[in-house]
């Protein structure tokens, strides 16, 4: 009886320990190099876009010149059915709805998967996005569109970048990468990223339509998310991607442990 209880305890401890052991995924040298190149490329693109957008915002010119025309055009499209849909999107990707979704996804994924590395990466990416949005917002101190045009209550916090859009971008892009980076069929990944892009588009449009953000607020959020995604890809590749014959202590081969 004592031996059975001891084996049971050891089994539970082994299962708990394996949650925090990162599985290895083996690939060719060129495949790993391409992942690093993609990560660096996304981060560079994100930084360049952000600088261009921020420069326009601060100088009230450049790309920000399109903010008012876009806002005015969206006001002309307002109607009851569209407003209801946009409010629902705002709630889903808002400061209450999205954290609940992220919590459910990360906890459920962490419990169901053999290893918790990817759910932890998702949680870390979401937290990074929140911190960046708060810090940048307080530095730039951009005002929102007129309060009388807001359709879901007044909001007088800073406008740049859009926290709703940044959260939507981080969640959809990072989740898509973490799920489909382990699939061998590139077509499924392409389709998934297209779907993620559609979701991001509607999340951004909802914020502009409801009168809470300028177009450049949404674009600025998207550019930041590209940097976050690139960082996730780089970290994930560094921690899990191995070439045949390479082994790092503290990881667990997918050949030994299976896939999540």
From TrEMBL:
Pfam families in alphabetical order: PAP2
Keyword Chaperone applies: no
Membrane-crossing residue ranges in chain numbering: 35-62, 82-109, 121-140, 160-180, 189-212, 218-238
Origin: domain of life: Bacteria
Domain Phosphatidic acid phosphatase type 2/haloperoxidase: 120-238
Keywords: Membrane, Transmembrane, Transmembrane helix
Residue runs in coiled coils: none
PANTHER family: AT30094P, SPHINGOSINE-1-PHOSPHATE PHOSPHOHYDROLASE
Name this polypeptide is given: Phosphatidic acid phosphatase type 2/haloperoxidase domain-containing protein
Natural source organism: Arthrobacter humicola
């Amino acid at each position: 009886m004592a031996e059975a209880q001891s084996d049971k305890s050891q089994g539970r401890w082994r299962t708990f320990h394996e949650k925090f052991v990162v599985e290895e995924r083996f690939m060719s040298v060129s495949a790993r190099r391409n992942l690093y190149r993609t990560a660096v490329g996304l981060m560079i693109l994100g930084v360049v876009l952000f600088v261009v957008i921020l420069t326009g915002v601060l100088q009230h010119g450049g790309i920000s010149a399109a903010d008012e025309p876009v806002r005015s055009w969206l006001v002309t499209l307002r109607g009851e059915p569209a407003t209801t849909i946009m409010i629902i999107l705002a709630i889903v990707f808002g400061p209450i709805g999205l954290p609940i979704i992220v919590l459910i996804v990360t906890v459920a994924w962490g419990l169901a998967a053999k290893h918790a590395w990817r759910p932890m990466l998702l949680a870390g990416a979401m937290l990074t996005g929140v911190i960046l949005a708060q810090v940048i917002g307080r530095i730039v101190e951009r005002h929102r569109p007129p309060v009388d045009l807001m359709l879901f209550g007044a909001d007088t916090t800073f406008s740049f970048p859009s926290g709703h859009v940044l959260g939507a971008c981080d969640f959809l892009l990072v989740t898509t990468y973490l799920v489909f980076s382990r699939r061998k069929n590139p077509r499924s990944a392409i389709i998934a990223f297209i779907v993620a892009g559609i979701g991001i588009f509607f999340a951004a449009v909802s914020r502009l339509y409801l009168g809470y953000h300028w177009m450049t607020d949404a674009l600025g959020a998207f550019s930041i998310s590209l940097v976050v995604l690139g960082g996730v890809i780089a970290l994930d590749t560094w921690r899990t991607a191995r070439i045949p014959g390479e082994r790092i202590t503290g990881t667990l081969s997918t050949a030994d442990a299976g896939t999540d």
